[in-house]
Amino acid sequence: MNEQLQPLKKPSRNGKVRTGTQDDIVYAHIFDAILEQRLAPSTKLSEEALGEIFGVSRTIIRRALSRLAHEGVVLLRPNRGAVVACPSVEEARQVFFARRLVERAITELAVQHATDEQLAELRQMVQDEQDCFARGDRGAGIRLSGEFHLKLAETAKNAPLVSFQRSLVSQTSLIIAQYESSNRSHCSYDEHNQLIDAIAARDSDKAVSLMMHHMDHVDSKLDLDEDSASRDLHAVFSHILGKNGKSAKKR
User: Fold this and answer.
1) Fewer CB atoms inside 10 Å of the end CB: C or N, the chain?
2) How far apart are CA 92 and CA 33, in angstroms?
3) Within 10 Å of residue 52's Cβ, how many Cβ atoms?
4) DSSP 8-state symbol, 74
5) Counting Cβ atoms within 10 Å, is residue 182 exposed (0-12), middle (13-18) or buried (19+)?
6) What is the DSSP letter of 77?
7) What percent of the chain has pLDDT over 90?
8) Whether residue 3 has pLDDT greater than 70
9) SS3 of 187, please?
10) Which has more pLDDT, 185 or 26?
11) 65: closest CA among 79, 42, 89, 81?
């Protein structure tokens, strides 16, 4: 059987089992680790270590890393291996500038196209996000905050915007992990709820204003500070390894 088509099932941090092709699942786990700020900028992504963690070949790992590099969150360095991207201050400014433009376009289109079912899904995501922060699971809350914006992009019914947003959201998470002041409170779920209300009311001007205020709030929390994420791949993906510290046998 073609190795890429062999299904691989691995638990996520919330206990759900991921399904899909091997590189799909490896990609998803690394993407989630970036969204949850568990992977620190500049972390070396050893193909050998990741292969052991996920129980797959280095070819599969390379495919997943290549996809992440295309989205701008991983750097592939010739003869030196891959690392998690480490945005400079200027790169961070550029990402946030681009993010504002994309968020504005997405919000305007969401007002036009979002269905009641999609709005209900967004409200549930906000509730789940709030629950995560309430029980102290900051990483999962941050991931859900990012996924909220990805789900919102889907309501715009514009495939290129969804693709742009996926890259920008993951890059933003890296920037926040690197530069956000740790003593600032997180209150995105209140802003997310207000945004949903404006979209449901089909009030484009208010929705865009709320989105720009939300981006201002995120931007205002950025500061040069040490990150709290980890560069230890085995620690980041401990839920993959399991209690005995061993990965699944390679297929």
Assistant:
1) N
2) 19
3) 17
4) E
5) exposed
6) E
7) 56
8) no
9) coil
10) 26
11) 81
Contact 3, 59 (CB under 8 A): yes
Q: What is the pLDDT of residues 44-73, one digit of tens each?
A: 999 999 999 999 999 999 999 999 999 889
- pLDDT at residue 149 is higher than 90: yes
Q: Which CATH architecture describes the domain 3-86+228-241?
A: Orthogonal Bundle (1.10)
Q: Which residues are CB-neighbours of 204 under 8 A, at least 6 positions away? A: 107, 108, 111, 112
63 Cβ contact partners less than 8 Å away, ≥ 6 residues apart: 4, 23, 27
List Cβ neighbours of 78 (8 Å cut-off, separation of 6 or more): none
Distance separating the N- and C-terminal Cα atoms of the chain:
10
pTM of the model: 0.75
Q: Which residue has the tokens 């991921």?
A: 18
* Phi, psi torsion values for 122, nearest 5 degrees: -65, -40
Angle value at C-alpha 210, between 126 and 181, nearest 5 degrees: 70
Calculate helix-pair angle for 188-200, 204-220, nearest 10 degrees: 170
User: With the C-alpha atoms ordered 108, 110, 116, 122, is the resulting torsion angle positive or negative?
Assistant: negative
Domain 89-220: which CATH class? mainly alpha
The region of weakest confidence among 113-127, 209-223, 228-242 is 228-242
Q: Pick left, alpha or beta for residue 20 (phi over 0 → left; psi -120 to 50 → alpha; otherwise beta).
A: left
| Sequence-distant (≥ 6) Cβ neighbours of residue 105 within 8 angstroms | 156, 158, 161
Buried-exposed string 126-163: b where 16+ CB fall within 10 A, e elsewhere: bebbbebbeeebebbbbbbbbbbbbbbbbbbebeebbe
